[in-house]
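Bench log. Compound arrived from synthesis this morning; before running ITC I wanted a structural hypothesis for how coenzyme A sits in the protein. Inputs:
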Amino acid sequence: MQLLLAHREGPVEHLTLNRPDVRNAFNAEMIAELSSWATGRQRTPDGVRVVVLRGAGKAFCAGADAAWLAKIASHSEDENVRDATATSRMFRALDELPMPVIGRVHGAAIGGGAGLVAVCDIAVASEDAVFGFTEVKLGIIPAVISPFVLAKIGPSAARELFVTGARFPAARAYKMDLVHAVVPDAELDDTIDRYVAEILAGGPEAIAAAKRLIRDVSTAGSAVETATVTAKALAARRASAEGQEGLRAFLEKRKPRWAQ
Ligand code: COA
């Protein structure tokens, strides 16, 4: 991998978007690397219990690479659909990772960069970070990111921000739950460390099941289906070795094995 750097610190995997010269705008190669990393982690978590995603250099991510988009625009419709589908699959693969993803957002998160923030479970932004769904300014639309963005900010904010393409500050991103904490740049890492510590104190299988639960409940078709999905999910956790260990540890006033 070159456009995506990955390094491990025990159960934490740090991922860095690495095209700083173009503010980490993603092209076909970076999409392929992110997709392949995410599908690999879905199949083999390999002890990774939390992922921290960041951008190298001055910004988190400036979205799709405009030069790449301009180039593929001249390709056939089939090729364009294939490329857009690959981008959509990348966001889905990141969204469905079993372990939590924390976004470390500094500088700018624009277009698909804001889409990447939307597929993070937790996003921590620096006070001076700038966001925007600016696609209409380029005559395009925030299409493949829209399901993930809508799930975070809701249709009302999306209607305003998708049609204006206006840039907005971290304080606004916080207000609409796109990010979960806004701190001075110098405090980004400490804030993320605190989130990491919270996550490492939780059962890894339970955390993966909790992420799955949110998805399943959001997509359940009826109240009956919701009741079945939630009851089965709870029963499975209670019966699991991890669930039994967690409950026993609480009753025995000790730390569960996964938190030691
Ligand atoms: N695609 C391709 N190149 C991009 C890019 C993108 N999405 N975003 C930035 N770049 C390039 C710039 O063209 C510039 O290249 P140059 O050095 O050859 O001139 C370089 O990255 C640095 O950009 P610059 O604007 O000078 O950096 P900045 O730190 O002042 O601002 C941003 C950073 C992200 C706020 C700004 O680059 C920006 O608004 N980019 C456009 C984002 C966008 O519209 N994304 C939606 C794409 S669908």
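What the model suggests: The mean pLDDT is 97. The first strand starts at residue 4 and ends at 9.
ITC booked for Thursday regardless.
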